[in-house]
Q: What sequence folds into this?
């Protein structure tokens, strides 16, 4: 099966390499980056996640791609599409998500990479809709969602977190194929 890779003006979204594991572990261990997730990940947890992501891409030909700078081939984070396994009341769905090393924040990379993923979702996978969700405190990700043309749909409590957990309340954003195509 041919694995899809995406390119933008500055970025390449590709299958993962074992060389990505060390910077990915750095990303996942950073307390500031992971403040909107239940906890930072250990090296073992991060490596297991990267391996799972690689396997899903190998099985589906698409997924949560590693993102690298085109000019230097430096790994800077990940962006992509995923079918969530949690028991959400808005399933079935395909989620878009991203996470970048802190030194690459504020440069428009998340929006640029995610836009390419939405284009892929609607033109290649022929999806009708893509969702994104995050903890209500994660304003930077919500701003990316809004820049992508996604709109707020509802607040909900993440089923994998206890209701009293400080990150339990999430926001759900959506974008339809029709809406995306009108904006591009």
A:
């Amino acid at each position: 099966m041919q694995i899809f890779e995406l390119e933008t003006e500055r970025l390449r979204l590709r299958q993962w390499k074992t060389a990505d594991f060390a910077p990915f572990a750095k990303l996942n261990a950073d307390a500031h980056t992971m403040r909107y997730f239940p906890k930072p990940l250990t090296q073992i947890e991060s490596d297991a996640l990267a391996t799972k992501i690689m396997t899903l891409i190998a099985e589906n030909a698409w997924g949560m791609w590693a993102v690298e700078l085109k000019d230097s081939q430096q790994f800077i984070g990940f962006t992509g599409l995923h079918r969530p396994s949690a028991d959400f009341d808005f399933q079935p769905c395909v989620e878009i998500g991203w996470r970048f090393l802190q030194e690459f924040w504020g440069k428009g990379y998340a929006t640029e990479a995610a836009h390419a993923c939405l284009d892929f979702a609607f033109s290649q996978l022929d999806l009708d809709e893509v969702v994104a969700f995050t903890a209500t405190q994660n304003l930077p990700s919500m701003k990316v969602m809004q820049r992508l043309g996604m709109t707020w749909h509802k607040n909900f409590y993440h089923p994998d977190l206890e209701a009293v957990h400080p990150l339990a309340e999430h926001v759900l954003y959506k974008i339809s194929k029709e809406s995306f195509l009108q904006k591009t």
Summary: The first strand starts at residue 6 and ends at 7. The mean pLDDT is 96. The domain at 6-183 is CATH 3.40.630.30 (Aminopeptidase). The chain has five helices and eight strands.
